[in-house]
Design a protein that fits this description.
Blueprint (H helix, E strand, L loop, with lengths): L2 E5 L2 E4 L4 E8 L6 E8 L6 E6 L6 E3 L7 E6 L4 E6 L8 E11 L11 E4 L3 E6 L1
Parallel strand pairs: 2-11
Antiparallel strand pairs: 1-3, 3-8, 4-5, 4-9, 5-6, 7-8, 9-10, 9-11
Length: 127
């Protein structure tokens, strides 16, 4: 059983920064890509970013490119999402997720390719 626990959400003014963390346990963390998704009220859950199992490759949704950075520390079984220049439209519950396929070469944004999810952490950006 894989467990993912997010932390680091909160309330921030537009233009500010937050760093989300996701601690993983229960599976060989270092062999699976990890992703961040978000869900705003009344909207579907959407892909934000993904990082390969090694940390060497990343993939971003266009709206967060240049503002968000995903990274991981396999020695700590943790994935991070550094969010800068936050906008009110970034307000959502943010979820981390684990890729269902080990050692995937091409990162994916389809949420059906992720089989374990955290409980989510709220990010609110005020204008």
């Amino acid at each position: 059983q894989v467990q993912l626990v997010e932390s680091g959400g909160g309330l921030v003014q537009a233009g500010g920064s937050l760093r989300l963390s996701c601690a993983a346990s229960g599976r060989t963390f270092s062999t699976y890509a990890m992703g961040w998704f978000r869900q705003a009220p009344g909207k579907e859950r959407e892909f934000v970013a993904a990082v390969s199992w090694s940390g060497g490759s990343t993939y971003y949704q266009d709206s967060v490119k240049g503002r968000f950075t995903i990274s991981r520390d396999n020695t700590k079984n943790t994935v991070y999402l550094q969010m800068n220049s936050l906008k009110p439209e970034d307000t959502a519950v943010y979820y981390c997720a684990a890729d269902r396929r080990a050692l995937r070469v091409v990162l994916v944004s389809n949420r059906n390719e992720y089989d374990y999810w955290g409980q989510g952490t709220q990010v609110t950006v005020s204008s």
